[in-house]
Every structure is written in structure tokens, then in C-alpha cells.
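Dear colleagues,

As part of the handover before I leave the project, I'm documenting each prediction I ran so the next person doesn't have to rerun anything. This entry is a single chain, and its sequence is reproduced below.
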Amino acid sequence: MMSWTRRYSMITGVALILLANLIALLGVMFNRSGLADSTLQLSQRELQIPYRRTQNNDNNGISLGLQWRLLGSVNQYQQYRGNDPGWLDKAKLASLGFNVSMPIDTERGRTAYQKQLSKPVFLVMEFDGPAYQQSIELAKQEDADDSKKKAEDDKKKNQPTALSQELNLNSRLFIVDASSDREMLRAKYPDTHHYSIVRGQIQPKVNYNKEKQPLMTGYIKDVSAQSINVPFEFRDVFEPTLRKSQKYGYAGNDKLPSIEATVAFGRRLEPWIVAASTK
């Protein structure tokens, strides 16, 4: 009896694994069927290999991180460097269904916002568009503001300028809008070669400006298209980047090979690489 129970459990476990794999495979097939919802031509600036020295086994796959930003930030981990909520302000949060009626200048109100749960939304990713051009102008202004300080500090003279980093290193992929209505967003952003729509999560957040005054903002808690696996046929394109990433880490982005990859977003808004090459 005990032997049959163990055998039944093993068979059930294997069947569940096979069923899960089948469901995942069908999901991938459905996502890639028909015309892609959007197609972006990205580079190593937007597709970053995580810094992992242990990833040296030829049998390991390569997973790329999709590097997005908000205007005024350098990367997704520093969403509001300038303490400016930008488009993700109180009015936008209200349109997404959040309760924004509580005051933010009281401890009770701030605590209430912290306790609000995030909401699933559709996010708009803009590639090499107006947000990136605005970011270049902000970098020029930052360099102008820092020019006197750098002139007085010999240690900073040889550091890359904000503009040079913006033009050569930083990601050109910005999240610029959100809604619970996917069709409305696509109608608003019809250019499928510069605007992709992905799923994500937004949560209210009380931020503070330079004067330490509270600001009502939203925080992008999650983006579903965060990771992209490299197909086997394109592995040779990304291998040199992987090796140099392991050697130099994130600080060596300027030493990484130049890559151009076509990334498609399918019916389920999930990305995959359809072409890749070195420049």
C-alpha cells in the first residue's frame, strides 16, 4: 500500500510538472502568434546583462534586464532623483482608481498612503522619443550648473559629464504613461516602433522635494517585462558582453561591445528577441 502511494505521488508530481510546462509553452506560442503589438530596436544600453561572476557555465542561459527610467532619473532604481513626480502625480493616481483624498502633510495621511495596495496597470514604454530628448536637455543644464564646481576640483575634471553619459551610456527607454485601458493607450501612442505597452504595478508614495515638503507621487512597483531570455541562436552575440560584464561590473558599461537587438512585444505584451547583432 505504501509503495503504491509513493508511486502515485511520483506520477502525480511528474504530471503536474508536465502540465505546467505545457501551459507555459502554450502561453509563449499564443504571445508570439500573429502580429507583434510593438517592436523596438534596442541596444546594450537598454538590455543589460546582470553582473554575475558565477555565470560562467556554457550550459547556463543568458537573461537580459530591460533597463527603463522615468524622466529626471538615471535608472529605475532611482525613480525620482529630482523629487519631481512628473506625469505620475496626484491626478494620474486618481485616474487609476487610487484614493488620494487624504492629506499628505499629516502623519496619519502619509501612513494611509503607505498602506494602500498597488494596482495592476498598463504602462507605456517610450524608446528614443521626447522623454529622452528632455533628458538630454536636463543633462546639459546639470553640466552647466556643475561646471564651476568641477573647475575648482581637480579630481572631478576627468569624470564623464552628465551629457556624455546621457548620449552614450544611459538607457533611452522611458515609462511615460499608465492606464487601466490598454486600447486607449495604444490609440494614444500608435507608433509601435517607439512605444510599447507592458503590464505593471503602481503604488502611491509620498515623496519630499529639496525643501523637504511632501509631494504626492506614484511609484512603479513592478514591470512584467523586466527580464528577457536570449535565444540560443543569438547567444554568440551576447557572450562577449557577458564576459566583460563579469570582468568590469556595472561600472564598465562604457567598455561593453555595441549590440543592436530587435525586441518584439506580443499579444500578451511579453517581450522576446527576434534579431540581434553587433554593430
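The longest helix spans residues 2-32. Residues 36-129+172-278 form one domain.

All the best with the project,
I.
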